[in-house]
Amino acid sequence: MAGSDWAYTLGLGTPQVGALGLRQSAAEARIAAESAIAAGRLGGVELTDVTGLRRVLLDVYASPISRELLHDILRPLDDLGPERALQSVRTLLVYLAREGSLVHAGRELMLHPNGVGYRMRRIRELLGIDLADPDARFAVELACRVRLLGAG
Fold first, then answer.
1. Regarding predicted confidence, which is higher, 137 or 26?
2. What burial letters (b/e) apply to 105-141, b meaning 16+ CB within 10 Å?
3. Can you point out the beta strands (E) in 59-135?
4. Domain limits at 75?
5. Are the beta carbons of 74 and 143 closer than 8 angstroms?
6. Among 69, 77, 86, 149, which one has the highest count of C-beta atoms within 10 angstroms of its own C-beta?
7. Could you tell me if 15 and 34 lie in one domain?
8. Is 146's pLDDT higher than 80?
9. Residue 91 belongs to domain with CATH number
């Protein structure tokens, strides 16, 4: 039974061959739909991530050991409370994805670059991680992506 105010969100998986491929495609479609719903994109068709990044992140998230190791990186942000921790993780991910540009991160976050700079100073202090180190930066970005995947 459906109401007039219902929104249907559909997920599409990648083309696959055989019975196992059908299961894979169905799982991808479910993940695509759930991701769209979690992000607030209701009432449309969501395609599976063709790069495969989301699937890799889901595999990492599914591993309790990997998930805990990555969670440890961001654990100091949890002391800020759930909302501020989530805001900090989003800020950090956007900042890293925009290669440390306060201006570009600010545009995406709809925040003045000085506001991004203030948040990033606080985040750096709490995490105590050198974001100039490529390995540390990669680990932090991976931790942010896995955290946000779990938050959805």
1. 137
2. bbebbebeeeebeebbeebeebbebebeeeeebeebb
3. none
4. 60-151
5. yes
6. 77
7. yes
8. yes
9. 1.10.10.2840
Assigned domain for 72 exists = yes
110 and 64 in a common domain: yes
The pLDDT tens digits of the residues spanning 35-46 come to: 667 666 777 787
Q: Does the pLDDT of residue 119 top 70, yes or no?
A: yes
The pLDDT assigned to 69 comes to 86
Q: Are residues 64 and 135 in the same domain?
A: yes
User: Helix or strand or coil: residue 10?
Assistant: strand
Torsion angle of the four alpha carbons 13, 14, 18, 24, in this order, in degrees rounded to the nearest 10: -50
**Mean pLDDT of all residues in 70-90:** 94
> Using CB atoms within 10 A of its CB, is residue 75 exposed (0-12), middle (13-18) or buried (19+)?
middle
- Residue whose pair of structure tokens reads 């991004």 in the numeric block: 116
Torsional sign, CA 34, 39, 45, 51: negative
Section 79-92 average pLDDT: 95
Residue with token string 């196992």:
20
Mean pLDDT taken over the chain: 84
Alpha-carbon distances, residue 151 vs 54, 86, 90 (angstroms): 14, 8, 11
Q: Which residues of 42-61 are buried (b: 16+ CB within 10 A; e: fewer)?
A: eeeebebbeeeebbebbebb
